[in-house]
Structure formats: structure tokens, C-alpha cells
Amino acid sequence: MNPEPMWHHEQSTDGDHTTIVLTGELDLSSATELQNLLVDAVRTASIVTVDVSAVGFIDSTTITALVNAHNTAATTGCQFTLANPAARIRRVLQVTGVLSTFTAPGSAH
Amino acid sequence: MAKPDPSDISGPTVRTAISGSAGMVLRQPFDAATVTAARHLLASTVAEAGLTGDSADDVVLAVNELVTNAVRHGGGTGVLEVRVLDDVLVCEVIDSGTRADGLPVRLSAVDVPGGRGLWLAHHLTGTLVLTRRPDGVTASVTVCLCPEPPSATVPAEDNSAAPEPAKGDS
After folding, report:
1. Do B36 and A97 touch (CB under 8 A)?
2. What is the CATH number of the domain that holds A52?
3. What are the C-alpha distances in Å from A105 to residues A45, A73, A82, B52?
4. Which domain range does residue A46 map to?
5. pLDDT band at A3 (very low <50, low <70, confident <90, very high)
């Protein structure tokens, strides 16, 4: 069985600012690839913004990938933020205590 | 093992979590490659049971965490069983892992990468039960199918006798 990927990403770079737009559902099946994507980005850019407005599902493995990327960003001096989480995604980030860590001040309503 | 007799369903409802085929609405083996598919099946089952909104999303995420935990720490495979027993939806994840490293149900610090799965399952449902068997772990969460009152999340025992909430802290 080779199911269709449940997520995809688009990456664009403007100077030292990389934007990654994620779409779909993020879970165990995407966690390793997601983490590699994010960690690679924070190693090569000064600012990484991950737009999750089109993400409909995240779980603990997604949060692990985000934490690893954020930790790497802290060591390289990169500013790593999540942008535009939908209500459902905000709830999961909030419940796990990482919402304020990943969302820039003023980016949330 | 003999299959449970389907006619048993007509007998008295067994309220223990592991109760053969009574009320079974989904039985789905899973492994690392089918975590997503199992979640989608669960989401359909939960919707058919009448759950909507955050209640549905929460139980789907909670069970997703139990399934993921079984794949990563519970021998790599397991079985998801969902039953409707009266007005309660019971979701069980049965795996074959011995968990020498324990079953931590706690919230990791913000800079610690892992360890949030069981805590999420617990926090989102308030009903996580972990049962160690000789040959693995059974994790279950339950959710009530009764409609929630529009504004209350915690049912009050007796509103008529309760004093009005104080305007300020006393």
C-alpha cells in the first residue's frame, strides 16, 4: 500500500527570510521529513516563517519536529515562528504549552 | 481463540472496556504505514456515532496519540477497537510492547522534543486508562455521546441549590 502523501510544502526565500507554507495533515508519517525540512531551513536562513494556515491536523510528533527546529534555530540565531494557525491547530499548541514559543508576539489574535 | 458469538450482543451490556464484540463499531489493525488511515477510519466512526466539533477532534487526536505510541513504543503494531456502549464511545488501542521505559503521562518542557503523546490523550479526554498486560499495553479513552449543554462544559449536580457565583474573589 502506498497512500498519497497527506501533506505538502512550498518553500520560498527572500534574502535571508525563508517562508515555508505547509498544507494538509501532519502526523507520524510526515514527522521525519517535516523535521528535516524545518531544520535545514533554520540552518540556512536568519528568519524562518512556517505558515500553517492550511494545516488541518497536527499531533505530538509534529510538535516534536517543531521543537527540534526551534532548538536548532536557537543555536544558529535564527528566528523561527509559526504563522496563522487555525483554531484547531492553536488549540493543540496551547494544550501542549508551546503556542507562545512558536507564535511571534502580535501574530495571534 | 473462538470468535465471540454475535448473538451475545443482545445480552446485558458489559461495561468493562474489553468486552468482546459487544457494541463494536470499528476494529482496525495498524502499523507505522497505516497510522493516517486508521485515524481517518476513526474520524468517520466518531462522526457516525454523532460526535462533532472539538469533542470529535479531541478524541480523534487522543486516539491518534495512542496509536502513534503503540507504533513507536509498543511493538510497532496494534489494534484499534471502538465500541459504542449505551451513550459512551470507548476507544481502545491494544499493542504488544513491554515498555521497559515506562508510560509517562506528563507535559514536557517547551524545549524537550518528545513525550507529549500520552499527556495529550489524557488532557484532551480526561479519561485515559493505561492497562499493562503480560504481553503489552491496552490504552483506552472514552467520551460521552450525550449532547453537551450549550454553555456548560462541566455538568452541575444541582444548580437550584447552588449560590450565585461571587462577582469577585472572596
Report:
1. no
2. 3.30.750.24
3. 20, 17, 11, 32
4. 26-102
5. low
- Rg over alpha carbons for chain B, rounded to the nearest Å, is 18
Q: Name the phi and psi angles at B150, rounded to 5.
A: -55, -40
Q: Where are the domains of chain B?
A: 22-147
Q: How far is A23 from chain B (nearest CA, A)?
A: 15
User: A6 at the B interface (CB within 8 A)?
Assistant: yes
Contacts of A70 (CB under 8 A, 6+ apart): A80, A101, A102, B111
Q: What is the pTM of this model?
A: 0.83
Distance separating the N- and C-terminal Cα atoms of chain A: 42
Nearest residue to B88 (alpha-carbon basis) of B5, B10, B16: B16
Task: Look at residue A9 and tell me if it is in a domain.
Answer: no
Residue A2 lies in a domain: no
Which of B32, B37, B68 faces A59 most closely, judged by CB atoms?
B68
Opening angle at CA A63, ends A60 and A68, nearest 5: 130
Query: Is the domain defined by B22-147 classed in CATH 3.30.450.40?
Result: no
Query: For the packed helices B53-73 and A60-76, what is the interaxial angle rounded to 10 degrees?
Result: 80
Q: What is the pLDDT of residues A76-95, one digit of tens each?
A: 999 999 999 999 999 999 99
